[in-house]
Amino acid sequence: MTQKSALITGITGQDGSYLAELLLAKGYEVHGVVRRSSQIGSTTRIDHLYQDPHEAGRRLFLHHGDVTDAGFLVNLIRDVRPDEVYNLAAQSHVRVSYELPDYTANVTALGTIRLLEAVRASGVETRIYQASTSELFGLTPAPQNEGTPFHPRSPYGVSKLYAYWSTVNYREAYGMFAVNGIAFNHESPRRGETFVTRKISRAVAHIKAGLWQEVYLGNLDAVRDWGYAPEYVEGYWRMLQADEPEDYVLATGVPATVRDFAEAAFAHVGLDWRDYVKHDERYERPADVPELTGDASRIRADLGWEARTKWADLARIMVDADLAALKTR
Fold first, then answer.
1. Taking every annotated instance into account, which residue ranges of this chain make up the domain NAD(P)-binding (predicted)?
2. For this structure, is 156 an active site residue?
3. Does residue 29 carry a catalytic annotation?
4. Pairing state between β 223-224 and 256-257
5. Which is catalytic among the residues 156, 164, 170, 236?
6. What is the mean pLDDT of the chain?
7. What is the pTM of this model?
8. Closest listed residue to residue 224, CA positions, set 162, 305, 160, 315
9. DSSP assignment string, 27-74
10. What 3-state class would DSSP assign to 68?
C-alpha cells in the first residue's frame, strides 16, 4: 500500500498538533507549514513530534512559510504533492480580530483562496479540508446545522465566511475535492492561554496553588457548544476519506454558558467560582454572539463521527492538565 501524505497549514496550533499526531499514527508522511519566528516556544505543541532532518525514515517535515505568500504555496504544493491538504492557518481569536481586522482578513480569508488557487495552478490532484467555524452563524438562532443561514458578527467570522464560500466555489467551478468543516468550539489543554476556556482552567490551577487571587472575564452569559479538540481532528480526517465532498457541522449539541464552564472548573478543585471571577468590560466584544449550539446529526449519520467529550468533562480535563503543568515547573 502506498504511503499517503498530508500538508497541514497551522500545524503549530492546537488542532494542527493533534491532527499531526493522528496522521502520523495512521502512517502518513506529514508536512507542516511553520511561520518563521525568533520567539522561543512557537513550536511547543509539536516539539514532541519533531524528527531530526538527519534521522532515517522520518515522516514529519516542516516548511517555513506563510499563507500570505502565494508563490510559496504554489511551490510547496507542487513539490510536496500531498494527497490531502488541511488548511488550519488563521488569525483565530475573535476578540483580537476587531483590533486586527485587516490582518485577520489577509490570513484567514485571502490565505484560503491563495491555497485553493495554489492547488488549482499546480495541477496537483489532492483533497482539501478548510477549517470553518460556528462563528459563521452569529446571530442566527440555535441549534445550527448545515442548512442554517449565516450571520457572522466579527471580522474573524466575516473572514471565515469568505473562506467558506471560496471553498464551495472552487469545488463547484473546478471539480476539486474541497470541503468545509464547520467546527463548533473545541478546546483542550493545548488551547491558547487567552481563549476563555483555557483562561479559566489556568486561573483555577493558579488560584488552587495559591499563586493568583482572581481572574477577569467578559460576558458570562454567552452560550457555546464546547467539545474536545482531539476528537474533532478525527472528524476532519473522516471528511477527506468520504466518497463525495460534503460540508459538515462538527459539534457536541450540548450548550453551556461561560458561567457554567467556570463553575464546573472551580468546583473540580473544591472552590466556588463566585469568590474568584471578576468582570471586565474590556473582554466584551463590540458585537457578541448570544448562542452557538450545533446539530451534528448529519456527519454522525454519514461518516459515523460523534463528539464523545462534553463541556463538563472537558473543563475537568483542562484543569487537571494545568494543575499538572504547575507541578512540573
1. 7-318
2. yes
3. no
4. antiparallel
5. 156
6. 96
7. 0.95
8. 315
9. T-EEEEEE----STTTTGGGGGG---TTSTT--EEEEE--TT-HHHHH
10. coil
- Unique residue bearing C-alpha cell 474533532: 232
Report which of 27, 13, 15 is spatially closest to residue 60, judged by C-alpha positions.
27
C-alpha cell at 64: 517555513
| Three-state SS at 15 | helix
Instruction: State yes or no: is 216 an active-site residue.
Output: no
Map residue 256 onto helix, strand or coil. strand
Q: Among 133, 148, 197, 309, which one carries the catalytic annotation? A: 133
CA angle in degrees (0–180, nearest 5) for 9-20-128: 45
d(CA 50, CA 52): 7
pLDDT tens-digit profile of 43-92? 899 999 988 888 888 899 999 999 999 999 999 999 999 999 999 999 98
Distance CA 244, CA 228 (A): 26
Average of pLDDT values for 25-36? 95
First to last CA, the chain: 45
CB 258 within 8 A of CB 292: no
Alpha-carbon distance values, 91 to 28, 34, 106, 233, 267 (Å): 27, 14, 9, 19, 32
Q: Which residue has the cell 484560503?
A: 112
CA dihedral 142, 146, 147, 152 (to 10 degrees): 60
The CA distance from 197 to 192, in Å, is: 9
Beta-sheet pairing, 84-87 with 5-9: parallel
